[in-house]
Amino acid sequence: MKLMVGAKGNLESTKVLLEETRGMIAELFLSVRNAKYSSGRTYVHEIDFDELIEVAALARPYGVEMVATFNTPCLGGREALPEFHEEFHDYLTRIREAGIKKIVLTHPTLMRYAVKHFPEIDIIVS
């Protein structure tokens, strides 16, 4: 049995977690800093893209996959605007470039967009 574990996201705590649980974790999920899409994990350190790249690189030798969370409950209709789709596209592009292959989504519009435009990213429904 392998675990999916929530991580704080900072390098120091992630390194300790990976070293102390060697071989027990399959996936670490964390929040990527974003004011628009929410993560549902605001009680932890939300990492920026530079940190995301570093944490993903740290996890890779342990065989641990990183998962970014987006527990967006409501977007107030902004998801219908073309500029919102452009911003979300750029955001998911950066997630993919960081080596993230799975994301957690709750909002149906974001799910449809991600499935259509980023089929290589697996969607976990929350």
Largest sheet properties: 5 strands, parallel
Shape: elongated
Assembly of the depicted chains: single chain
Q: How far apart are the termini? A: 22 Å
Low-pLDDT ranges: none
Whole-angstrom Rg: 14 Å
Q: What structural class do the secondary elements suggest?
A: alpha/beta
Q: Sketch the topology as an H/E string, one letter per element.
A: EHEHEHEHE
Strand content: 15-25%
Number of strand elements: 5
**Average predicted confidence as pLDDT:** 85
Q: Which strand order does the major sheet show?
A: 1-2-3-4-5
Q: How much helicity do the residues have?
A: 25-40%
Counting DSSP H or I runs of 4 or more residues, the number of helices is 4
Structure description:
The chain is of the alpha/beta class and 126 residues long. It is 37% helix and 20% strand. Helix 3 packs across helix 4. The longest helix has 16 residues. It is elongated. The mean pLDDT is 85.
Summarize the structure.
The protein is an alpha/beta fold.
SSE diagram, text form:
Elements: E1 3-6, H1 11-20, E2 25-31, H2 49-59, E3 65-70, H3 82-97, E4 102-105, H4 108-117, E5 122-125
Parallel strand pairs: 1-2, 2-3, 3-4, 4-5
